[in-house]
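Side project, low priority. Logging it here so it doesn't get lost.
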Amino acid sequence: MAVAEVKEPTQGSVPPLGVVMRTLAPYARPHLWVLVLALVVTLAGSVAALLMPQVLGGLIDGRIAVGDRSALLPATLVVLGLGLFEAAMVFVRRLMVLGASTRIEYKARMGLFTHLVDLPAAFHDRWPSGQLLTRVTQDLNLVRRWLAFGLIMLINDIGMLVVGTVLMARSNVILALVFLAGSVPLIFLMVRFEREYRSLTRRAQDKSGDVATVVEESVKGVRILKSFGRAPEALAHFGSKAEELRDLEVRRGVADARIFRWLTLIPNAIIAVSLVLAIWFASLGWMTVGGVVAFFATVTILRFPLQFLGFLISFSLDALSATSRFKEVMDAPVSIADPDDPVPLTAHCRGARLEFRNVKFKFDDQDAGEDALLSGLDLDVAPGERMALVGLTGSGKTTLINLAARFYDVTAGCVLIDGVDVRDLTRHELRRQLAVAFEDPTLFSASVRDNVMLGNPDGGDEVLAEALHVAAAEFVDLLPEGVDTVIGEEGQSLSGGQRQRLALARAIASQPRLMLLDDPLSALDVHTEARVTAELDRALGETTALIVAHRPSTVALAHRVALLDRGQVVAVGTHEDLLRTNERYRYVISSFDIAEEAA
């Protein structure tokens, strides 16, 4: 299936650790003391583990060397106590980080979702939903696991290697230097691994977002795919994306395997060389038997953190990349924000005055030489008036609806409600004045009641019943649980006309001063539309309405009609006057009639 792949606007590299920690700081700061204490507990347990070889070495070189076995039981109890202490520290660490890390994840996820809702429509026009979904779920879950385990264990293992090397030097400085010298190649290999793994990690995480986008689009459009018999093509398209993700994950796995190979081989080689040298040194009297035992017991303990270091580094790179993806969204500016000094809006009548003054609009990503969608548009809708917007496709009708609701801001000029620029109102105050119903309605996976009363949750049953009646949506009474029936994701279990009627009921139930209707009756049959039109004419009363019309019957709802052409209002008047005096208007209306006959 030939579907264009949409990429998010920016795909940055993995940021430095300091940038990541600053990104997570607002969410982690209240729990920082818990994470620091968990790190201290972990280090204490690791020190206890490293002390065990020292106890054994001292025992062998002490009492046992002279044939006195009386110290064997106390030493055994000390080693047992150190082992139990280490186990207790592991248990305490897990208890501590579990609550702290999950609360950090929750706060970060809530912050990300809040920001996503706050971002303008232009942002969501550019970003695929799958990319955002994986950031909210997979990426933050990965960051949480890294904070709870990866970061603490990485610091702990580095600390163990430093302390262990110091303890080995107490047994024999030369052997400790051999251990350090053997570790130098590992540093070089890890630097190379880090460079390769960074790129693979970011590409794999981005590709995971692409796969999620394809799944979401295919599931939402499954009826279309089935109706056109394109399921095999959709499967092939998904398969190609999944294959690309698989290849990237395989390459990451190969990179992991290569570094683990060296992390296993080099420490074992170091141990073998150290063993030969230790035996030689012991034969020369340069080391005691207890010193040899303590040295190799320490090396054995350090072997696991040394080998585990590769996993922790790859885990950390995954988490740093995930945080980078989180940061990209959080850094996206909220270009449509509340003003610093908002102007209060005082309602003097039931309907609001809506004015467009010399409005120009152009999308941010339009080419410099491309014509603006709106170019110097002027329109005045009086309080309580119903104004229909008529024009051919691309004339700017829906753009006016979006500007009035401030889903976008004008490029030049202004949009006024009761004489106040919408940019001088808080978004809450603005949207408290208006309600919107689109041609392609969006319903949520919730009950009919919750969907209809979304804009007026305290409206009560009378408001709900009136809204459903006006929208001719009494079909809800036949649903299994009536208005309490959960209608499923996006209302796909309902017909297009039923979804439109519920969306219209939602706009009516909010009882706004300004109604913005973007061809909300297009999916209704002629008889239902006639009934809804009559009821809507009554229900609107003094409410101001701006109505995008694609049918002559919808135009009949309006007191006046504004004719749009190439981003400008070229004529305003009653339907009858424009039919009589404006040739362009007659042409547009006749195109509506032809479209209805074709349908």
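Brief comment: The first strand starts at residue 354 and ends at 361.
Revisit when time allows.
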